Amino acid sequence: MAVSSQSQSHFRHALLRHLPVRCHLIVMLLALAASVRPLPAAIVYDEAVDGELTSDNLAPQPINFTIGDNTVVGTVESSQGVGNVDVFTFNVPTGVQWTSMVVDNYESTDSLAFVGINDDSFFPYNTFELDLVNFGDLPDDAFLGGTTFSSFDLGNDILPRSANVAGRGFTAPLPSGDYSIYIQQTGAITDYALTFNLVSAVPEPGVVSLLLLGSVSLLMRRRGRRVSLLMRRGGRRKGLCIDR
Fold first, then answer.
1. Is residue 53 in a domain?
2. What is the pLDDT along the chain (244 residues), one digit of tens a residue?
3. Which of 8, 69, 17 shows the shortest CA–CA distance to 221?
4. Strand 61-62 vs strand 68-76: parallel, antiparallel, or unpaired?
5. What are phi and psi for residue 209, nearest 5 degrees?
6. Hey, is 52 helix, strand or coil?
7. What's the CA gap between 134 and 140, in Å, rounded?
8. NCBIfam families this protein is in (predicted)?
9. Domain span at residue 178?
10. In angstroms, how far apart are the furthest CA atoms of the chain?
């Protein structure tokens, strides 16, 4: 049997009137969670479409990242032979955090590639200098972090691992600021796709409004119950005085 939207609304209001205050808060939070939908992933740079990313670690390719998933698709090969490395930079705006770096594609006969992260608009080392870092001839604290990645990382967030394998180290999520990414492969040609997720560090205005509205509603309901209880108690006391 079909139920009209008016009847459904009446039922919801009736149900909420009889719920405890704590249940009201739970319902409000569930509604907020349901209203926040993740933004779809967007390919912000694809070398097959947008051209080769630069190999210049001191002048990376700027890429515009926005809140949500930002996917970069590229190809690297034989960094010390062909010299095809990919270096790009992006900005995390004020009030936004960088929360993850997910491997969406890795195709190569070589088992590993390397990704380095620096918290600036450049990466301090080129491929030959990184070899010196590996042998201990150059310090690795000149950049923020880094790690190798492979086909075994497909679908996984490698940002936390990047904090602990190379570089100075950090704690995710990363705050607003400029960042540079350096991707290299010392062996065979490698196709990759990395997705960088940015999220707002503060609630959206609509969410804040809902929270304020819910808080006011709960306070008014509590105050109404308190006034009603005091009136009932006052009536009972007055009745006792009359009986006497």
1. yes
2. 554 555 555 545 554 455 455 544 444 444 444 444 445 569 999 999 999 999 999 999 999 999 999 999 999 998 888 789 999 999 999 999 999 999 999 999 999 999 999 999 999 999 999 988 887 888 989 999 999 999 999 999 999 999 999 999 999 999 999 999 999 999 999 999 999 999 998 765 554 444 444 444 444 555 555 545 555 666 555 444 434 4
3. 17
4. unpaired
5. -60, -45
6. coil
7. 8
8. PEP_CTERM
9. 42-200
10. 105
Phi-psi region of 155 (alpha: psi -120 to 50; beta: other; left: phi over 0): left
CATH number of the domain bearing residue 173: 2.60.120
Cβ(68)–Cβ(41) below 8 Å:
yes
The encoded tokens of residue 169 equal: 């180290």
| Structure tokens belonging to residue 43 | 């390919």
**CA-based R_g, the chain, Å:** 28
State the Cα torsion 157-158-162-164 to the nearest 10°.
80
Amino acid occupying residue 78: S
Check residue 63 and give its pLDDT.
98
- Amino acid at position 241, single letter: C
Task: For residue 219, tell me if it sits in a domain.
Answer: no
Q: How many domains does the structure of the chain reveal?
A: 1
Q: Helical H runs in 154-243? A: 159-165, 205-243
Residue 214 lies in a domain: no
- Is residue 146 in a domain? yes
User: Parallel, antiparallel, or unpaired: how do β-strands 61-62 and 86-92 relate?
Assistant: parallel
